[in-house]
Structure formats: structure tokens, C-alpha cells
Amino acid sequence: MDAVEAYILDLEEPQRSILEYLHQLLLSHPEVTCQIRYKIPFYSRKKWVCYTNPREGGIELAFIQGAELSNEQGLLQARGRKMVTGVVFQSVGDIPEAALLEVIQEALLLDEVAPYNGPKRKKRKR
């Protein structure tokens, strides 16, 4: 059993079922890998694409370059963040698989073609 599987099994329901579903969905894409970073699962191909994070009885699927995604499906919310956007699922039944697959495909395409620039930081005066 690897660290990610142990992490998932350590969660309570419904978070465990939600994360198992999202984990399998994400790993079904070619070359996507998962590792525990900052105590939560991060999914990457060339660079970090998204992560899953427990939230109030559910799981948030957050996309690192979410601000650059089209969000035509209306799933993603920034919630005060500049680059990261995500969606919180309270149960497996809440997951709109077709729409979520579109978002994941777009995020993976962005991972292939666009470098991650991060938010612009102001230079400090010396």
C-alpha cells in the first residue's frame, strides 16, 4: 500500500468514497501520477495539475492553474485565491462526471502547453 492509498483509507465517510472516486478518475489519464505533498494528495503530469483536500464533510478538487481554465461548466470557484480554483463535493452522487472530465482534460492540456507562472509578486525595495 502506498502513501496515497493509506491517506485515503484513513479518511472517514463520505470523504473516503469521494476521494477514492476522484483518485481513480484522475489516475485514469495517461502519465498522471499522485504523491502526498503538504499532507494531501497532489496530482501531476509535467507539473502539479490539481490536488484534493478534505473540506467540511466533503472533498475539494482544486486546480493549480485554475484561473487560466475556461470554466465553461461553471464548476470552479476561486474563493479568494488568485490562481487556484476548485469545487467541493459532499458526496459521490454530487460529482457531474462529464463536466468534471472536461475540466480535467483542459487542465491536462494546459499542463502540456503552458508554463506555470504563478501570481505576479511585487519586488521588494531595498
Automatic annotation (TrEMBL):
Segments forming domain YdhG-like: 15-108
* Species classification: Bacteria, Pseudomonadati, Bacteroidota, Saprospiria, Saprospirales
Q: What is this protein called?
A: YdhG-like domain-containing protein
What domain of life is recorded for the organism?
Bacteria
